Please model this.
Amino acid sequence: MSQKMASTPDPHCFANPGVPFNPEWLADIHINRSAVERRTACLVARRSLTNQWQTAWLLKAISCIDLTTLSGQDTPGRVRRLCTRARAPLPEVLQKALAVESLPLTTGAVCVYHQMVETAVRALEGSTIPVAAVSSGFPAGLSPMETRIAEVTASVAAGAREIDIVITRAHVLNGDWESLYREVRAFRTACATAHMKTILSTGELGDLNNVARASMVAMMAGSDFIKTSTGMESTNATLPVSLVMLRAIRDYYMRTGYRVGFKPAGGITTARAALHYMLLVKEELGDAWLTPARFRFGASSLLGDIERQLSQGNALCPYAGAEAGY
Ligand SMILES: O=C[C@H](O)COP(=O)(O)O
Model:
């Protein structure tokens, strides 16, 4: 793929305006699955991290969490409690013990169904924490297009500053990339100034070539983030899929100069797993991506494990090694 930068966009602008659909950018995508799996297995096996660096990385991980509740049992009370947690993700006493009591720590966002957007926006008033809504017919994306667009528009009107959209998997499975482009482009328009995260549902796309192509089409169509999963598929975020998506992000950056964000989501429940994803992002894209503006975890229970590990000090034994950090 091309290593040439097409343009030099404003580095402070995180939005990706997208580019016209270009099938040539898909033509030379051929993913070697075993090479991808070897690379991620190797990454998991080889790294170590001192306690001090581990703490810093876990605090960074918290700031990158889209604290999520996507349950049929969601109530305004439950969403308000989640928002309280987003404002103060760690107990004061723990922040003090870690000597970071002056750190203004919050999660990256609170992520809810459309129905709960207003409640979350009200509960987060006075903070800078954005509300992310899963709109557009989450999770299967099989409602009529007008309904899906109307839901996105309504979420934005209700105050969601980030919209997580789902795609029609059939477009990918049929290799109908132009239809996928048009669909994502329509959601881009409906999102207006809200940041758009495109959920690919990678566990339902067949193979890694489709993951890479769908990633590229979603970015061409103006996604600000690409996200692995809804959390409802039978296979959600994995490191191999993440590697493929990160390389697509790098490729898109080299072609256009736009830095699209990455959000692994679904089944990320441990601090150890979170560190693996962060390390992969650092190695593939560099520090410029390790910021809430370009990296998020979609997770409902990760924060609890990070808090436990921080309380226990050095519980991630394989990481408590000799290296002075990643
Ligand atoms: O986008 C967020 C996911 O739905 C959260 O999934 P999880 O409950 O497995 O953490």
In short: The pocket of glyceraldehyde-3-phosphate is lined by residues 68, 70, 111, 230-231, 265-267, 298-301 (CB under 6 Å). Residues 239-256 form the longest helix (18 residues).
